[in-house]
Amino acid sequence: MPAGGPFRILVCIKQVPKAQELQVDPKTQTLKRVGVPSEINPPDANALEFALRIKDRMPAEIIVLSMGPTSFDESLERSIGMGADRAVLLTDRILGGSDTVPTAHALSETIKKIGGYDLILCGEETTDASTGHVGPGIAGHLDIPQITYISEIDIVDGKVHARRTAEDGSEWWEAAMPCLVTVNFGCNKPRAPTLSGKIRVKRGGVIVHWSCADVGIDPNKVGLKNSPTIVAKVDTVHLPPRARKLFHGEPPEAVAGLLKALVEDGVIRP
Amino acid sequence: MTGIHHNPLEGKSHFRGVWVFLEGRKGALRDVSIQLIGEGRRIADRGGVPLTGVLPGHDVEALARHAIGYGLDRVIVVDHPLLEIYRSRPFTKVMATLITRHKPEIVLYGASKNGRDLGGRLHAVLETGLAADCVKFDIDEEGNLDMIRPSFGGKSLAHILCKQHRPQMASARRNVFLAPPHDPTRHGEVVRETVDLSEADLDAKLLEFKEFVREGGVRPDEAEVVVSGGYGLGDPKYFGMLQDLADLLGGAVAASRKAVDSGWIPKEFQVGQTGMTVRPKVYFAIGISGAVQHLAGMQESDKIVAINLDPKAAIFEIADYGIVGDLFQIVPEFIRQLKELKAGRGPLIAPLATIA
Fold first, then answer.
1. Which pairs with CB-CB distance under 8 Å and at least 24 residues apart come from B50-54?
2. CB < 8 Å to B309, chain A
3. What is the pLDDT along chain B (356 residues), one digit of tens a residue?
4. Which residues in chain A touch residue B324, judged by CB atoms under 8 angstroms apart?
5. Are B294 and B266 spatial neighbours (Cβ–Cβ below 8 Å)?
6. Domains of chain B by residue range
7. In chain A, what residues touch B282 (CB-CB under 8 Å)?
């Protein structure tokens, strides 16, 4: 913990299209993205909730950080409404098309500029790209400990204790700070924005926009042309059409219909 | 500069060979590592290059020798007490050091929690590309690895290329590649290498490990019938009801992510993008709304049955059959009628031959 300053928590968030709203256009067989509402990437909202719970128990300052177009202000405003103290948006045209390598680089440079952090929380992955690579990438750049896929977190004697869900079991890890953790989707219920939070947004001054030049990010390290990976093409998956047959009526009648259909399909033998 | 940013491992023609990161556990290889050896072999043979396994661990020499039998040409072992369990920093240091030392062209990881934890940190440090959760690999006309992964919860497949940076790295999903047979007579080399590790690399401490215990029965990813419960169950005790249904059908119980994250059922039962992929003959989605992440893990089922209170639930969009209604009435009724049907009739699920 840096001497003197408040306990500082950074929460990295991304704004994503609402996953449930994403539909495949039956005619073109492509994803309909236009007009799809946005939200805070759900695992990032769980990360923010953990930060807020820490702040409920001890004095702390929460800074929310994001990288993207200015439309991301919507999610930053929501974060402030939920109880974050302030927010930084790294926004610059030259960042466009960045894959996880420049993204982790740019965010870690921004985190260095903010400085004085004790704990960094990220969601485990985004619902739109689903890599889970940026959080560990930031920890690698900052050369700090990381604990990924956590469902519980506590600060004990100046150290982070976190429960990680692995394939075979649950692990309790302890790490010194500063430390980065990535938070499992759905492990807590993010709180709703409060009236006082919304008023703080209205008053203004809580969200700042930084360009790459403001942070000192090398333009030759970010953006599409400095991203190691490209998406060469996207194939639409043609799933077999489903009957989508509904059985109506009272439970005995509906169930009888379902059972009969499964028997007729030969899946259940009469 | 040509507008192309080179990573520290500049000069991609110097990179050669295919590597598979081997994840050991309790003296055995994880199944995804074995499956990746099979796929790595196929890729290496297309390029006429050797296939190397990399096994950081402690006292793993016997395991390294065993791994060769799955199709490796050699295994690089880094043995150190700090590597006895997976830890982000030392494992990243070992892999970064070995990759810089030997310059493989391709490095593959299992898309396990540890594989992603490692890959994410490592690709940033090495400044090279990493494609997550791949389900298929190919080689394009320029000789690049075509890394194919589901996007948008499996609604499309994205082809990822890493043209200028080396190595090309990818994590691969479990149970999509076939595990190769084990040939104990296969010859290969075990190479011991050292990487400087010290207590300073121990930046996180494992305080406690509680293993998930699977209670008997069939695994959901091997079962012909999967009865899966979601948040709509409202309480973990109702998984007992689903188990009754699964038992009647000779199937297995599974769960949505939300049920798992609510602590109702262990993670090992989770179906979906961050859980397992199942392809049973019948998948019952009970009280599951059908988030795209869930669909990604079950949409290849032969038949999908949805039972949900909400007629607008996305799960009905991909269901063959659905009942809109109260699962607490429907499931017991289904169990009752099944028992009637079953009375004196043997297995309810038809053998394979009668279906096709």
1. B50/B17, B50/B18, B50/B74, B51/B17, B51/B18, B51/B19, B51/B20, B52/B17, B52/B18, B52/B19, B52/B20, B52/B76, B52/B104, B53/B19, B53/B20, B53/B22, B54/B19, B54/B20, B54/B21, B54/B22, B54/B78, B54/B95, B54/B98
2. none
3. 233 344 545 567 789 999 999 999 888 999 999 999 999 999 999 999 999 999 999 999 999 999 999 999 999 999 999 999 999 999 999 999 999 999 999 999 999 999 999 999 999 999 999 999 999 999 999 999 999 998 876 678 899 999 999 999 999 988 789 899 999 999 999 999 999 999 999 999 999 998 876 555 678 888 889 999 999 999 999 999 999 999 999 899 999 988 988 889 988 899 987 788 898 999 999 999 998 889 888 988 999 999 999 999 999 999 999 999 999 999 999 999 999 888 866 556 654 444 33
4. 246, 248
5. no
6. 12-201, 220-355
7. 262, 267-268
Considering the domain B220-355 in this protein, what is its CATH number? Answer: 3.40.50.1220
Average pLDDT on A96-122 reads: 97
Query: Which pTM value belongs to this model?
Result: 0.83
**What confidence tens digit (pLDDT) does each residue in A6-19 have?**
899 999 999 998 86
Protein fold of A8-226: Rossmann fold (3.40.50)
Are the beta carbons of B112 and A268 separated by less than 8 Å? Answer: no
Q: Which of 3.20.20.30, 3.40.50.620, 2.60.40.60, 3.30.565.10 would CATH assign to domain B12-201?
A: 3.40.50.620
> B320: which 2 tokens?
């063959």
Closest approach of chain A CAs to the CA of B192, in angstroms? 26
Contact flag A173-B206 (C-beta cutoff 8 Å): yes
Cβ contacts of residue B302 below 8 Å, gap of 6+?
A267, B279, B280, B281, B282
Q: Does A244 touch chain B (CB under 8 A)?
A: yes
Which residues of A fall within a CB distance of 8 Å from B176? none
Kindly report the nearest CA distance between residue B131 and chain A, in angstroms. 8
Using the Cβ of A6 and the Cβ atoms of chain B, whether some distance falls under 8 Å is answered with no
CB contact under 8 A, A174 and B212: no
Residues 39-98 of A with CB under 8 A from B: none
A260 CB neighbours in chain B (<8 A) are: none
Residues from chain B contacting residue A261 (CB–CB below 8 Å): 321
Smallest CA–CA separation between A72 and chain B, in Å?
Answer: 20
A130-184 pLDDT per residue, tens: 899 999 999 999 999 999 999 999 999 999 999 998 878 889 999 999 999 999 9
3-state DSSP assignment of residue B7: coil
- Give whole-number Cα distances, B225 to A98, B32, B196, B222, B305, in Å: 42, 23, 50, 9, 11
Torsion of CA B304, B307, B312, B315, to 10 degrees: -30
Q: Does B152 sit within 8 Å of A22, measured CB to CB?
A: yes
Which residue ranges make up each domain of chain A? 8-226, 240-270
- Structure token digits, residue A160: 């982070």
